[in-house]
Amino acid sequence: MKDSREYLNELAADIATEWDLYRNNQFSSLQASSDDGEAVCYLCLDGGVEESCEPLRRDCACRGTDAGFVHLECLTKYAAAKSVQWDGHEMNEFSNPWHTCPNCHQEYQNYFAVDIATEFVSFVRRQYPDNTPKQVESLYVKLCALMDVFDRVPPVQKREAGVTANVILSFIDRMKNDAPLTRRYSKFEANAHGFHGRIALDEGSEESARRAVVHFERKIELSKAIGDDEGVATAKRNIAQAKSKYEGGRNSTEELLKASQELYELRVAKHGEGNLLTIDSGVIYAVNLQKANRGNEARDFLAKVLETSKQVLGSDHSTTKAVASALSTCRFLFG
Q1: DSSP string across 72-88
Q2: What's the alpha-carbon Rg for the chain, to the nearest Å?
């Protein structure tokens, strides 16, 4: 039986080639213009491009013409230095530099998030090759980044997401042999099953939708064990979505709408209306309002969510643009 690392290594060459080609055509990170004299990397204070021809990049919630831009190479060095300085107590401090902007304190988005997460995986493999928890940390950041762009990546990245979820679960099983899992890694385990469900659901068949439900039910079981109400609510919404694929009918639509509303309201209570997860859940809730022929409610709700997103994340943030697009579609359909 192959070691977990071998599955990832088998993908490496294909992923590097296809990802570079796709990213060059689909770049979504904001980039500083070559003739913009204001923007510089906030770490090295240099503008232009690196030797690798990487542009200044920004895909967080930093705003303005000169704030938050960074070279990927500089950010990698910064994040590595912060992780090496980690004191061994709060694991968030080890991982945060690789997924959260130190300036606006919002998570990186889109392909920039995937790129810096990829650097995190490479850093841990070099620096801590025998440290299973740190391997899980880096792979989980990479998996989350891949799943955030799952609908927009080529098949090899979707395959990578599934393999990464399997490797995470394999490593977590290994950790269980040494000591009881902490709540953090139990949550990673639950979410890995949830991601497996989303991957199965993406296949589009009735059989794959039924497989997805099995993964989502496993996520509910694991989430309940650690008292993660948000994990339970997310899985219930996803189960309703999966069942709508093969059951259909008004009841499925209403169940999906109810589950979407419950998740949104839970996140409002837990994180506030301006949280990124809350905003994303709001868009999904609005889409399901439309499916239930409640277009006017969806339009008014999306207008409110859009204003919140603009205030918290800024007009150029990818999430704000997604809300604006959903609102535009809703207005087109329902006036």
Answers
A1: HHHHHHHHHHHHHT--S
A2: 20
Interatomic CA distance for residues 206 and 213, integer angstroms: 11
Tokens of 260: 């979407």
- Distance separating alpha carbons of residues 103 and 42, to the nearest angstrom: 10
The size of the chain, in residues, is: 335
Distances in whole angstroms, Cα of residue 76 to Cα of each of 7, 113, 192, 232: 25, 12, 25, 34
Amino acid making up residue 230 = E
pLDDT, one tens digit per residue, over 3-48 is 555 555 554 444 444 444 444 444 444 555 544 457 899 999 887 6
Retrieve residue 33's tokens.
Answer: 């213009």
Q: In terms of C-beta distances under 8 Å and separation of at least 24 residues, what long-range contacts does 73-77 make, across chains too?
A: 74/41, 74/43, 74/44, 74/50, 75/43, 75/116, 76/116, 76/119, 76/123, 77/43
8 Å CB contact between 254 and 292:
yes
Are the C-beta atoms of 263 and 281 separated by less than 8 Å?
yes
DSSP state letters, 243-282: HHHHT-HHHHHHHHHHHHHHHHHHHHHHH-TTSHHHHHHH
Q: Which residues pair with 58 in a beta bridge?
A: 30
Could you give the CA distance from residue 308 to residue 61 in angstroms, rounded to a whole number? 13
Look up residue 29 and give its amino acid.
S
Mean pLDDT of 177-185: 93
- The token duo for 250 is 């008004």
Contact 334, 304 (CB under 8 A): no
Say whether pTM exceeds 0.70.
yes
Q: Which of helix, strand or coil describes residue 140?
A: helix
Whose tokens are 């599955």? That residue is 7
